[in-house]
Each structure stands twice: as C-alpha cells, then as structure tokens.
Design goal:
The chain is 26% helix and 21% strand. It is of the alpha+beta class. The strands form four sheets. Strands 1, 2, 7, 8, 9, 10, 11, 12 and 15 form a nine-stranded antiparallel β-sheet that branches. It has a two-stranded antiparallel sheet with strand order 3-4. A hairpin with a 4-residue loop joins strand 13 and strand 14. The radius of gyration is 21 Å and the shape is globular.
Length: 300
C-alpha cells in the first residue's frame, strides 16, 4: 500500500512540475531576468516614452537560442533600434485601442511598451509604418518619412512639418495651410493621417522584394490586400556551427491592438524565434501564414 501511495505521490509531483513549466512557457519570467546582469546598456530614442530603461529592451529580455549569437547591427541603424525596443515588463496582455483585452491572448510572447492610440487605426501595416517612422523621427531623418495613400499619392512629413495639410478633394490631394510643424505632437497627427488612408495594399507597393536568404532586421512579411496582413522582423541570431539563422517577428492586427512579439506555433522549444532552416515555402505565425516570396524591405 505504501508503495502504491509513493508512486501516486511521485506522479502527482511530476504532473505539478510539468504544469508549472508549461504555464511559464506562455509568459516571460521577468523576475528571473531582473536577477541577470544587463547585457547591453545602449540608449536610443523612443519618443513615445518619458524615459527609456535598457533593462526592458528586447535585447535584454529575450535571449538567443542555445548556440546562437545575436546579430550585431550597425550603430544607429534601424536594425539596432528595433533590437532595443522596450518590452512591457509589468503586463503581458494585448489590449485593443478601446482598452478591452484582445480575444486571443495566446499569440504573443511579449508585448511592446508602445501606445496603440484611441482609434481603430494602428493595425498591422500601420504598426510597421509607425515603427519605421518613429526610428526616422528619432534619428532626425525627417526627409525620409513618407508613405503613400492607397490612391498612390505620396505624403511626405517634410511637407507636413512646414505648415501644410493634405486635404482630399475628389480623390485628389491638395495641400492647404495648417498649424503643422516638426514637433512630436504634430508628428503623431501625421501618422494618424497616414493610418487613415494607407494600409497593406499601399505599403506593399512601396517596398522591394527580398529573397528569404537575404533577410535582415527591419524586413517585412507582407500581403497587400483587403484584408491583407504584415509582420516585421525585429531581431535575428546566427549559429556558426550549423550556419542557421533565426528571426523574431512582431505585429499588430485587427482591430488595432498592442504591438507584440509573436510566438512560433510550429516550434515551442525555439519560440519566439523562427529558424530559417525549418522553413520551406511558408512562415506560419499564430494568426497568419505567409509565403517566403512575400518578404519585402523599405527602399529608403
């Protein structure tokens, strides 16, 4: 009898520890991360934050898989800026623009510490345009901040910040005088305008196609359409022994929601990283499947 009880007790303990392990796999153990020494203290500008703490960056909270080394990006580049995006270390919940919780809380590995806005605008392509524009704004490359409306008209921030506003008249754009300038508040209004009249259909036409083997941080998997979808590569790693590379993806979705790092539904052990060696013709994310031919890159 004692033997039977001991076996049952042992099985119960195994089940308990296995369950704890499975539950922890769905969220980042931020308490454990806090105990580790900060690996990287690089500071970049993330204008939506009052202050930036490198401890909360992707770089310092999501580590490469065993045997892999994080990609070393050129200082002040888009790739280096993306690698150090801040993670929300206090709440791993994806919220919609109206403050409600997203119905699916199983897609995210981590949530970025960035606002989503109060309108249903910052969806998939919009979130990518937001990150690209924020980087260019932070590095004062104002002349490179421009996106096309769905009708093909280019809307440059360099025109906006000189006191003009693009007014639509019968599907044509007429620039009229306005109280716009280069302030961050005005920049955010510019983005709201872009989000209103642009999307995956327009963004996909602005980008150039890239072979999957040439992928770099900042590239985008995108299918233009109504609806379409888009996710952005925010980090990469390399294994010298196997020559394999891994990448990490981030997205917003519909309705407009918190930008978040995606899990890898095909490989929970590797998640949130995706291995190029495991990809044939498609990349399956938790809420969309892309073809390898849908990888694109910002031209400017």
């Amino acid at each position: 009898m004692k033997c039977v009880l001991f076996i049952l007790y042992s099985l119960l303990l195994c089940f308990y520890f296995y369950s704890c392990k499975e539950n922890k796999a769905d969220t980042i153990d931020f308490e454990l991360i806090k105990q580790n020494q900060v690996v990287d203290t690089t500071h970049y500008t993330y204008s939506w934050l009052d202050s930036y703490n490198p401890n909360s960056s992707i770089f310092n909270t999501i580590f490469p898989p065993d045997g892999y080394k994080r990609s070393t990006e050129e200082k002040n580049s888009f790739g280096a800026w993306l690698q150090r995006l801040p993670i929300n270390t206090t709440d791993n919940t994806v919220y919609l623009f109206n403050g409600e919780k997203k119905y699916n809380q199983q897609a995210q590995h981590a949530v970025l510490d960035i606002d989503v806005g109060e309108k249903d605008l910052q969806q998939c392509a919009d979130a990518i345009m937001r990150l690209r524009a924020e980087y260019l704004y932070a590095t004062k490359q104002f002349d490179k901040i421009q996106f096309n409306y769905t009708n093909g008209v280019t809307i440059p921030f360099s025109k906006w910040n000189k006191g003009f506003y693009p007014k639509l008249q019968e599907n044509k754009v007429v620039w009229v005088s306005a109280n716009n300038d280069a302030s961050y508040k005005s920049f955010k209004k510019y983005l709201t305008n872009i989000f209103t009249y642009a999307g995956t259909a327009s963004l996909s036409k602005e980008m150039k196609s890239i072979a999957i083997k040439e992928m770099t941080i900042g590239d985008v998997f995108i299918l233009g359409g109504h609806p379409g979808h888009a996710v952005i590569v925010v980090d990469m790693t390399f294994n010298k022994t196997t020559n394999d590379r891994c990448f990490m993806l981030a997205q917003s979705y519909m309705p407009a929601q918190s930008i978040h790092i995606l899990k890898n539904p095909r490989n929970e052990r590797l998640s949130p990283w995706y291995s190029l060696s495991e990809i044939n013709n498609e990349i399956r994310t938790p809420e969309w499947t892309f073809n390898v031919t849908q990888l694109k890159r910002f031209i400017k």
